[in-house]
Amino acid sequence: MAEQEGARAPQEHGFDAPYWQQHWQRAQGRPGEHRAVPNPHLVREVEGLAPGDALDAGCGEGGDALWLAGRGWRVVGADVSAEALARAAGRPGAGSVAWVRADLTTWDPGRRFDLVTTHYAHPAMPQLAFYGRLAGWVAPGGTLLVVGHLRGAGHGAGHGAGHGAGHGAGHGHPEGATVGVADVVARLDPAAWDVVTAEEHERDVTAPDGRQRRLHDAVVRAVRRS
Ligand SMILES: C[S@@+](CC[C@H](N)C(=O)[O-])C[C@H]1O[C@@H](n2cnc3c(N)ncnc32)[C@H](O)[C@@H]1O
């Protein structure tokens, strides 16, 4: 979303459901709104795993959920925005994913998953607590993959790199929407989790306005031992 279109500056909003609905409504019609490629961290971290039941938490317009489904995963794509889910449901192959409108800060899936993955979702609750919720939905032996906006790496209000590769150019990421890799790892009980990946990444993407942006990502993959 572009700041000039919204009434609220990025550091002032709470990333609640109306905010995200507006985000997706404003993205409508913009070039690049359907990402052509899945998140590269998802591809790298998951392509070697045996498919099972997966949750894409904050799936947006569904490109990553669809990529997982194409690899044989049985995928639930959950998002708080009806607009995002409508866009996802309109994509080729959308019938291979179960799209669920849910506020993940309160939702109880009533089950566990072999993979819970989340890419740049930052809801109206503390980021690390949100990841803690997602971790609780991973089955024994299953995987948690967190891809977040890296704290302290060009993500100040008003000059952030945007939400993922395909949308959100010009949107700054206030500190509360960012994380440090070590902080995500520290959230996982070492008695229950094996951390496989804990990395910081930079990558350049083309934003909807056609300009190149640099994304700074925190990537953590962990396997639940028990
Ligand atoms: C920056 S977008 C990222 C979308 C997608 N994962 C991607 O990488 O392109 C963040 C997504 O998280 C969703 N989201 C934010 N808060 C949420 C919540 N409380 N429950 C469910 N989804 C939420 C938003 O609607 C939005 O689609």
Task: Give a quick precis of the structure.
The chain has 226 residues and is an alpha/beta fold. The chain has helices at residues 17-27, 40-46, 63-70, 82-89, 127-135, 181-186, and strands at residues 53-57, 74-79, 97-101, 113-119, 138-150, 178-179, 193-206, 212-224. Strands 1, 2, 3, 4, 5, 6, 7 and 8 form an eight-stranded mixed sheet that branches.
Written overview of the protein:
The structure is a single chain. The protein is α/β, with parallel strands linked by helices and 226 residues long. It has one domain (3-29, 37-224): 3-Layer(aba) Sandwich (Rossmann fold), CATH 3.40.50. Helices cover 22% and strands 29% of the residues. It contains 6 helices and 8 strands, in the order H-H-E-H-E-H-E-E-H-E-E-H-E-E. Strands 1, 2, 3, 4, 5, 6, 7 and 8 form an 8-stranded mixed β-sheet that branches. The chain is globular, with a radius of gyration of 16 Å. It starts with 16 loop residues before the first helix and ends with a strand. Mean pLDDT is 86; it is low at 1-12, 156-162 and 164-171. S-adenosylmethionine binds at residues 15, 20, 39, 58-60, 78-81, 84, 102-105, 119-121, 123, 163-164. One of its GO terms (biological process) is methylation. This is Class I SAM-dependent methyltransferase. GO terms for molecular function: methyltransferase activity.
